[in-house]
Amino acid sequence: VQLQASGGGLVQAGGSLRLSCAASGRAMSPSGMAWFRQAPGKERTFVAAISWNSDNTRYADSVTGRYTISRDNARNTVYLHMNNLKVEDTALYFCAKSRLAGIGASTAANPSGYADWGQGTLVTVSS
Predict the structure, then answer these.
(1) CA 12 – CA 27 distance, rounded (Å)
(2) Beta strands of the chain (E only): which ranges?
(3) Cβ neighbours for 12, distance < 8 A, ≥ 6 positions apart
(4) Residue of 74, 83, 24 lying closest to 54 (CA atoms)
(5) Could you give the CA distance from residue 37 to residue 95 in angstroms, rounded to a whole number?
(6) Does the pLDDT of residue 26 top 70, yes or no?
């Protein structure tokens, strides 16, 4: 499956963005999907994940209450709604397709659990 992330850009602190990740080739379902991010000079870190039927979501502590992950399986697209953005949210954001349908508490944040990755979309938050 090919994953194409889009929606990044430059936004002021306190602003909002919506990222999209469109899957082509094999459908997204029945796989969990996730977003990770990588800031300059830092490791890739988990942001959010959603199960294949949207009945379960998980978030990194740093984005809880500000970000919302959602998906539309009919459109093979997963979204990341980002509100109240902070300068420290600046990063390259990647979407990823899980090897599993669910998103377990001990596995959702582990990059090795994801078989396919998009190319990333850059989010820059200015002060």
Answers:
(1) 35
(2) 2-6, 9-12, 17-24, 33-38, 44-50, 57-59, 67-72, 77-82, 91-98, 114-117, 121-126
(3) 125, 126, 127
(4) 74
(5) 9
(6) no
Q: Apex CA 26: angle with CA 22 and CA 29, to 5°? A: 75
- Is residue 123 packed enough to be buried (19+ CB in 10 Å), middle (13-18) or exposed (0-12)? buried
Which amino acid is residue 122, in one-letter code? L
Residue 125 tokens read as 């938050």
Taking the C-alpha atoms of residue 93 and residue 114, their distance in angstroms, rounded to an integer, is 15
Which residues have C-beta within 8 Å of that of residue 107, sequence separation ≥ 6? 100, 113
Mean pLDDT across the stretch 120-124? 97
Torsion over CA: 62, 103, 7, 18 (sign): negative
Q: Give the Cα separation of 26 and 90 in Å (integer).
A: 31
